[in-house]
Amino acid sequence: MVDVAKGGEVQLEPEYDRVSEIKAFDETKGGVKGLVDAGISEVPRLFHQPPDTLGETHVPSASLYGYTIPVIDLEGVKEDRSARKSIVEQVRIASKEWGFFQIINHGIPVSVLEEMKLSIRSFFEQDVELKKPFYTRDFTKKVVHNSNFHLHTAPAANWRDSIFCNMAPDPPSAEELPEPIRDMMVQYTECIMSLGHLLFELISEALGLNPDHLLKIDCAKGLGQLCHYAPACPQPELTLVTTKHADNSFLTVLLQDHVGGLQVLHENQWIDVPPVPGALVVNIGDLLQLISNDSLVSVEHRVLANSVGPRVSVGSFFVTGFHPNPRVYGPIKELLSDENPPKYMETTVIEYLTHFKNKGLDGKSALTHFRI
């Protein structure tokens, strides 16, 4: 209890009971969308980010400082040998210096991208009673809808709701998928799996390996689709849609809408990743940094809240998730030498993901735990 002087008397102000507030919020199963629908005008305290988190350096207009996220045109990558060579080199530089790049002419029709975003929005904007059957914190399920996977462990909750669909290697049946996203989730997954195979080939070549090297060690075996919905926020300066983190995947392909808010930490500056019509954002995940022995970098990024909203995004995470997979991953032996010894211990995907989940989005790299 806190003593508060008022009118010459000492009154007791109740302490903030964060645990109870989180429990009450989670039990509604309505998520952030439920709060907005209830007409709140202030962001609940459980979403308030620590001031030092929000006060980190930000470059409002990256181009003014000479910083621009690389945009790579994949036109001709399968037919033109010289074009492919140039693309591989662009991928190598972007993956080593930025850990992030955008791709255009990637082969997925714009109509599919637009329909996918609409289907996700439809799921989150339907009646809450229709969403509740999918609301769970059992992450072994193939379809998981909730608000903040790390709600009970993170320093602050994020201003977003999510639905995660584990689409490979053992996808849910059509009946297990929510009706608003059912058809598009299957179609979009097929497109992303095909694109993912191409990206892993390009990255393998960028590392000086055979094109199929990363595919042979199951980097593209698993795919989880993580779809976020962030409603307009009444006090966007107090919270974030996604706290600073690096991805727990081999590779992530992101479909973002026109709202924006994604930022990458580059040379200690927050750089905007502007939405480019028809483009997809690609970023290196922690597991790819680990097996490349730091040849490629998994970079921290975050998403700002906004008062415009809603913001919709679909992150396609190439990782086998919590499926039993005995394969052990460590720095690729072909990349090692006396001058470049292994920097990480070997681990399994499950061991890595368990550490990541228990740690939560606390702004610190999960890779540190596995460094030699």
UniProtKB/TrEMBL annotation:
UniProt cross-references to Pfam families, sorted A to Z: 2OG-FeII_Oxy, DIOX_N
Cofactor(s) required for function per UniProt: Fe cation
GO molecular function, one term: metal ion binding
Top-rank taxon, per record: Eukaryota
Domain Fe2OG dioxygenase: 216-321
UniProt xrefs under InterPro entries: DIOX_N, IPNS-like_FE2OG_OXY, IPNS-like_sf, Oxoglu/Fe-dep_dioxygenase_dom
PROSITE patterns to which the protein is assigned, alphabetical: FE2OG_OXY
Key words of the record: Iron, Metal-binding, Oxidoreductase
Entry's family note: Belongs to the iron/ascorbate-dependent oxidoreductase family.
Name of protein: Fe2OG dioxygenase domain-containing protein
Species: Hibiscus trionum (Flower of an hour)
Taxon lineage: Eukaryota, Viridiplantae, Streptophyta, Embryophyta, Tracheophyta
